[in-house]
Design goal:
By secondary structure, the chain is α/β, with parallel strands linked by helices. The protein has 18 helices and 21 strands. Helix 4 runs antiparallel to helix 5.
Length: about 500
């Protein structure tokens, strides 16, 4: 299913900041609307103090770009805008330009599920300056949130160490859009299912769920509630046991499980949603085993995240399946990724590409100029370093030096001729036409899991992860330095 078509029914061209439109108008007014430019979308710091980030959101970007146009009701709204003196904000000629506008940019991006790092381009847009500018806000809106949640899901899944992780944060998510995007990104990051039925319909994510405390409270006794649920779902019984008393709840679940067994059915397990999860899960395991239910699963929930999960693992909690809601879909401990979208080059009147960069008093905020790509090198099957380089068609030398963009003393020599490597940016659109074949969501999820497997565990640990080497190819580093010095009039 196509996301935009199913969810939004129409143009999303006005899903942007007002200043993008005023800049677009000024570009048109000054004759620069169709001047060719290159922009890069990237982030400066891994979220959650993590050692890695997982890319997500490209599918939404594709739908946005494919459907990018200004419809008549969009243009009518813009025509009604006035300045302080009462004159129209936008001339009629500009409105007509937007009416005839057809998306014609090249878009290259890292594929969803790719493990990525700071200062490397996630999305590269090349095309008419006005169009590139209008893509900034929606692309950041899409990529920022979904990448954040996919990364959170990956961290949780890594700490689960192979146990299934169920995402059920719909009720706590930031609105309908946030809930659907979060369910999809969570699945990309490694979750095995969602409680969000609409996400299941739209994206093909497996859906799962048990019952709430209200189900128990609707009956005179807990045992009666379990019996009624077993009658309705004899092949899918996971009983929530902590409504009144967890230990008695486990006993009641066992009673109903024995009745199911007598009928040739099987109790799948129990869920604990409160209290000391380590203690109660171990007691539950003992009780279930003694009662003849060694295959019954213990599901745990209750405001879990990767840190609590890690602690419960260290306590040897007998938990088989993890239900994660609020802290996953809201990216609870970091509400935004902080990705940015910066111009990297512009074509002058002579037809030459001129590299561009923003200078800042903070070194981390000085962007990387030029038409860039990213290459990842592997040694003995493990990722060893990422290189940001200028894509100019030149063959890579056998020995490369990469330099940390924020600390020139951090350098790494790479014998590229003897190593496996791959380019991370893939062509998505050429002159506005989609050239990329979208993978299925299951394939994206598998890409995440496989990709993470190619990184040393030191980069994936929860606390103080080892920093993965990412650097600028030496000539790009020197170009950037020279442009900074020039901008500061140092030479």
């Amino acid at each position: 299913m196509k996301i935009t078509k199913d969810l939004y029914h129409g143009s999303l061209a006005l899903l942007t900041d007002f200043y993008q439109l005023t800049m677009a108008y000024a570009y048109w007014k000054s004759g620069k609307a169709d001047q060719q430019a290159v922009f890069n979308l990237f982030f400066r710091k891994n979220p959650f103090q993590s050692g890695f980030t997982v890319a997500a959101g490209l599918d939404y970007v594709i739908d946005f770009c494919r459907n990018f146009k200004f419809e008549e009701n969009d243009l009518e709204y813009l025509q009604q805008m006035t300045q302080k003196d009462g004159t129209p904000t936008f001339e009629e000629g500009f409105i007509q330009y937007l009416r005839e506008l057809k998306f014609s940019c090249d878009v290259d991006a890292v594929e969803e599920g790719t493990v990525i790092f700071p200062n490397t381009p996630m999305v590269r847009v090349r095309g008419p300056l006005l169009q590139c500018q209008l893509l900034e806000t929606p692309l950041l809106n899409i990529i920022n949130f979904q990448t954040l949640v996919a990364t959170k899901a990956s961290r949780i899944s890594l700490e689960a160490k192979g146990d299934p992780v169920l995402e059920f944060g719909l009720r706590r998510a930031q609105g309908i859009d946030g809930a659907l995007a979060a369910s999809r990104a969570s699945y990309i990051g490694g979750c095995s299912s969602t409680s969000n039925v609409m996400a299941g319909k739209l994206f093909g994510i497996p859906v799962s769920g048990t019952h709430a405390h209200s189900w128990i409270m609707a009956f005179d006794t807990e045992l009666e509630a379990f019996e009624a649920y077993a009658e309705a779902f004899p092949d899918n019984c996971i009983f929530l046991v902590d409504t009144y008393d967890t230990l008695k709840g486990i006993q009641n679940a066992i009673k109903v499980g024995q009745s199911l067994k007598a009928k040739g059915k099987k109790m799948l397990g129990i869920r604990i949603d409160s209290g000391d999860l380590a203690y109660y899960s171990n007691v539950a395991r003992e009780m279930l085993d003694e009662a003849g239910f060694p295959d019954a699963k213990v599901v745990a929930s209750n405001d879990l995240d990767e840190h609590i999960l890690s602690s419960l693992k260290m306590q040897e909690a007998a938990i088989d399946i993890w239900g994660i809601g609020t802290k996953l879909v809201t990216a609870y401990d970091q509400p935004a990724l902080g990705a940015v979208y910066k111009m990297a080059a512009i074509k002058n009147e002579k037809g030459d590409w001129v590299p561009k960069l923003k200078v800042s008093q903070q070194a981390v905020k000085i962007n990387i100029p030029g038409f860039q790509n990213v290459r990842r090198f592997y040694k003995n099957g493990k990722a060893m370093a990422d290189m940001v380089y200028l894509e100019n068609g030149e063959k890579l030398p056998d020995e490369i030096t990469i330099i940390d963009p924020n600390d020139p003393t951090k350098r790494k020599k790479i014998q590229s001729g003897a190593l496996e490597s791959k380019v991370l940016l893939k062509s998505i659109f050429k002159e506005g036409e989609k050239v990329y074949t979208r993978p299925k969501l299951d394939e994206i999820r598998e890409k995440t899991l496989t990709g993470l497997g190619r990184f040393d565990k030191a980069h994936k640990r929860l606390i103080n992860p080892h920093i993965y080497p990412v650097g600028l190819e030496e000539s790009l580093y020197h170009l950037r330095t020279d442009l900074v010095l020039k901008a500061k009039n140092y030479h």
